[in-house]
Write a structure and sequence with these properties.
Number of helices: 5
CATH topology of the domain at 103-203: Alpha-Beta Plaits
Helix content: 25-40%
Largest sheet: 5 strands, mixed
Structural class: alpha/beta
Radius of gyration: 63 Å
Length: 215
């Protein structure tokens, strides 16, 4: 026979002091000093902490001024205003004009370097008809097959080229300034023509004599 408030043996029920209920058989009674469940509190703290961190990261980008984009322009484009047009100016071409020398200013001495009499005189007459200032024809110091043209210190290569052109000769017949013409004297001459055999066929006089040698 059991007494009130006491257990009824192994596996019986026990009365919890100060409690109003009974625990099931085999279960442990709850400790009144155990701290309450904290999982919900920890979860809330973590969510709040993450929200604060995300807010801190997004705040600078939301308040930062937009980046300025700089477009490099050429100096010419920078000076032009809106709606302006660019006009390209073609490069100017320069033309050098070579003025031919007046034949009257070119003093020509013709020397006969052939065995044909009168060649130098005929060439002198021909050049005089072209407007050149001619001197009295002379004989060259030696014989030559090809005609050569020289110029003195009072002349120039351009003047010698003028005479060569008048005689229908190639520019190559004009000799260098340092070359010495085969004549005894070049006084008064700016250009000297040493008439060779190539001119003899063109300027040989129609009648010649063997007793008197002419230029």
């Amino acid at each position: 026979m059991s007494e009130p408030g006491s257990g009824s043996g192994a596996g019986g029920q026990y009365e919890v002091p100060g409690g109003s209920g009974h625990t099931a058989a085999g279960s442990h009674p709850r400790d009144p000093f155990e701290p309450p469940e904290r999982s919900g509190l920890v979860r809330g703290v973590v969510i709040i902490t993450l929200a604060v961190i995300v807010g801190i990261l997004l705040l600078p980008s939301a308040t930062r001024a937009p980046l300025a984009v700089v477009v490099a322009r050429s100096p010419a484009a920078a000076r032009q205003g809106p709606g302006s047009t660019t006009t390209s100016v073609p490069a100017r071409s320069t033309t050098t004009t070579i003025t031919a020398l007046a034949p009257a200013k070119i003093h020509v001495l013709v020397a006969n370097a052939t065995s044909v009499n009168g060649v130098a005189g005929s060439v002198t007459t021909f050049l005089g008809g072209k407007g050149f200032a001619t001197l009295t024809a002379v004989n060259a110091l030696d014989k030559q097959t090809a005609t050569q043209i020289y110029f003195t210190t009072t002349g120039s290569s351009a003047a010698a080229s003028e005479v060569a052109s008048a005689l229908s000769l190639a520019p190559a017949v004009v000799q260098a300034a340092s070359a010495k013409p085969p004549v005894s004297s070049a006084a008064g001459a700016s250009v000297i023509v040493i008439a060779g055999s190539d001119l003899a066929t063109r300027f040989a006089p129609s009648s010649t004599t063997t007793t008197v040698k002419s230029h």
